[in-house]
Predict the structure.
Amino acid sequence: MAVEMVIMGTGTSVGVPVPGCRCDVCLSEHPRNQRTRTGVLVRAPEGEFVIDTGPELRLQLIRSRANQIHAAVMTHGHADHVMGLDDLRIFGFRLNAAIPIYCEENVEEHLRQTFAYAFVDPAKAAHRFAIPQLRFERIAPGRPFSLLGLDVLPLRVKHGNLSILGYRIGDTAFCTDVSTIPAETREQLRGLKTLVLSALRHEPHPTHLHIAEALRLIRQLQPETTYLTHMSHDLDYDQLLAELPEGVYPAWDGLQLCINVNG
């Protein structure tokens, strides 16, 4: 069974171009140097869902020609991964049902605080359309869950000192904002056809993989193909493509991947 994953955004927390920056990448007219905040659309057998809800979610969904988002799956609670949550409002309104948000407890707590208006009594709202309909589904690393006809496996990864989640679906895994991957998770990443992995820049960073670290990890995991995401304006698409080894490529906004799922 074939499933499509669209890499809707490949940029860092400030995106690329960076406001006010005049570096060559930020001034570049190359479309693959235009990077919105990181996020993924999955076209599953029974509907569509997103991984993370970044600030440009509405525009990303329009560009990806999404039809109806039935759920959101969260990696962690940082602003560049959650601030488009309200853009799910239209989908809950159409379904007349709450959109499930799959996340860990600490992410739920953060979202309830950040989007407090979304969790008040609907009777107190000026209009029912003013409040997104959302509900939470608790997930945990290493415990697969079923979503829209797919088995989704949450993966424990580290983002500096913060424990966050990546996800494996069939022969494809999406791991963003990674600084290290624990040994038990590396075993869960064996046998991949496609790995989408963050790589911020060439220089080391305390909470993100840099290019050399990402390549070392890729050599250990040995996926057939890897696409790098969550890239800063330090990385020019063409220059990076020329530097990377065979089987490793910079991702770009709108990249479409085919996921093979058993069954």
